[in-house]
Amino acid sequence: MPTERFRRGAARLAEMGGDIDNIVAPLADVAPDLARLVGEFAFGDLYTRPGLDLPHRQLVTIAALVTLGDTERQLRFHIAAALEVGVTPRQVVETIIHLLAFAGNPRVFNAMLVARAVFAERDLLPLTDQPPVDPAG
Questions:
Q1: What is the pTM of this model?
Q2: Is the dihedral of CA 36, 37, 42, 44 positive or negative?
Q3: Mean predicted confidence (pLDDT) in 117-135
Q4: In principle, which of 36, 46, 85, 129 could form an S-S bond with 54, CB 3.0–4.6 Å?
Q5: What domains are defined for the chain?
């Protein structure tokens, strides 16, 4: 029986364009507790805390995933979720570019390829929202 935390997490995940069953089903036969903990803790507790709205939480999550590296599946989901909650493609791109100094070229390049794939799936290419600022002025 799902707990209130799990139901709250499922609702928050749905608000982000996700489906708790996509998290739970692949793990049900090997690690049902992991699926439950992700639903309860990550989405039921952390993602419902006050202090940051969903767009900011998604940008923070994207930054963390880029920095970790080897997170393509999760990065794909969270970029799509960011777009669902109002983050612009340009904000995603600028967040990833900003990480060049902190996460390094390979991780930033790979993350940008994931972002590009998500944008392409949503027919958002080429990006038309605000061109990048020229720092030379």
A1: 0.91
A2: positive
A3: 85
A4: 85
A5: 1-49 (no CATH), 52-128 (1.20.1290.10)
